[in-house]
Structure formats: C-alpha cells, structure tokens
Design a protein that fits this description.
The complex is a heterodimer of chains A (116) and B (107). By secondary structure, chain A is mostly beta strands. Helix content of chain A is 0%, strand content 55%. Chain A contains no helices and eleven strands. The radius of gyration of chain A is 13 Å and the shape is globular. In chain B, strands 2, 4, 5, 6, 9, 10 and 11 form a seven-stranded mixed sheet that branches. Classes of the chains: A mainly beta (116), B mainly beta (107). Chains A and B meet through strand 5, strand 9 and strand 10 of A and strand 4, strand 5 and strand 10 of B.
Chain lengths: 116, 107
C-alpha cells in the first residue's frame, strides 16, 4: 500500500520561502513521478511541477524561477520550495505520485497561508 | 498554455440521474486527458485516464470519452457518494492544466 505523507511550515510572511516535503511509503514501480499541485481556498487546481525518480523535472513557467523540486532517493522524499511568496500563494499544496501523468497516490494536503 | 474549459460549473441532480460534464481543450490534445473527483476537504482522486480508461477500483457508472478538443464525462446513475467536484486535466503539453471544475450536488 503506497502512502504519501507531507509536511512543512503552514504560516509564512510575504517574501519568505515555502518549503514542503512529501515522503513515500510502500513500493512504487520504477519510473514513478511526483507532482506538486496547489489549490487556493475555494478555487480550482493548479499544477506546479513534477519530478521522477531519476531526477528529471518539469516546471510550470508561471512560477518562473521561484520554484524548485527535488528528490532524495535514499529517503524517498520529494521536496518543493517556492521563494518570495505573496498572499497569492496561499493555498492547499498537494503532492501526488504514480506513473507519468497518472497520479494515483496523494498526500493529505498542506495548507500554507501567507500573511504579514 | 492549453486552456481547459469545463461546463457546467455546477449542477444539481437526483439519485439515479444521468450526469454529463463536458471539457473542451483550446487545442488538439489527442486523448491525453484525466478526470478527477474531489470530495470536500479531501485530495483529488484519479478516476479516468487517457480520456476513457477507468482506473482500477472505480465504479463502472463513471465513464469518459472524446478525443481532440471535446471530451465528455458521464455518471450513468448518480449516487449520494458522488457528490463532489470533478476536474479534467490535459497532459498533452506542459504546463499541465486543469479545467475549472464542475460541482455536482444532490437535489
């Protein structure tokens, strides 16, 4: 049974850096991907970035150079950092894993609020 | 970016009704389309991939079809547990993009 458990700081001030980690437990087949997706309160879903277990990544250009994702193979941890946050970055952030373009397993979501 | 337009944005139906949601892509995405279900306070759940393939364990009352720019998601007989918001997502090109969602409520 694959499970994703995510954690990170929930309250940030403007200009700070968001940092979230997603730990994978259980066995995922080789070639799996982890995506980060966010959802502002009461709104729709926005894809942020993805990385596979070989370290190959893709990013949403709308985040320009603010976002970085990484994968620690030894710990099976995926991480997301988003720099220079503003109130517009307030959202629930999800990690999701599985085959490419087939995110079967989701983290529980992390509410990140940006406020001065 | 490929724009995904879902309609309606919300609907209300009775138990046993047939529910249909449409998703239109701003350009040809072949059949590179997922459908998700999101219940309140929960993470999304992948129901359908490749426009019409049902994920393992998903009830057969859910179905999807279409290719190119026009797609349809159907619940053949609405059940109380189907109350949720449904999203389409294209993966033909980066960035991956979602439709705005369709909230399905019970009458």
């Amino acid at each position: 049974q694959v499970q994703l458990q995510q954690w990170g700081a929930g309250l940030l001030k403007p200009s700070e850096t968001l940092s979230l980690t997603c730990a994978v437990s259980g066995q995922l087949s080789s070639g799996y991907y982890c995506s980060w997706i966010r959802q502002p309160p009461g709104k729709g879903l926005e894809w942020i970035a993805e990385i596979n277990d070989s370290g190959s990544s893709n990013y949403n250009p709308s985040f320009k150079s603010r976002v970085t994702i990484s994968f620690d193979t030894s710990k099976k941890h995926f991480s997301l950092t988003l720099s220079s946050v503003t109130a517009a970055d307030t959202a629930i952030y999800y990690c999701a894993g599985g085959g490419i373009f087939r995110p079967l397993y989701w983290g529980q979501g992390s509410l990140v609020a940006v406020s001065s | 970016d490929i724009q995904m337009t879902q309609s309606p944005s919300s609907l209300s139906a009775s138990v046993g009704d047939r529910v249909t949601i449409t998703c239109q892509a701003s350009q040809d995405i072949k059949d590179y389309l997922n459908w998700y279900q999101q219940k309140p306070g929960k993470a999304p759940k992948l129901l359908i991939y490749d426009a019409s393939s049902l994920e393992v364990g998903v009830p057969p009352r859910f179905s999807g079809n279409g290719s190119g720019t026009d797609f349809i998601f159907t619940i053949t007989s609405l059940q109380p547990e189907d109350v949720a918001t449904y999203y389409c997502q294209q993966y033909d090109d980066y960035p991956l993009t979602f439709g705005g969602g369709t909230k399905v409520e019970m009458k």
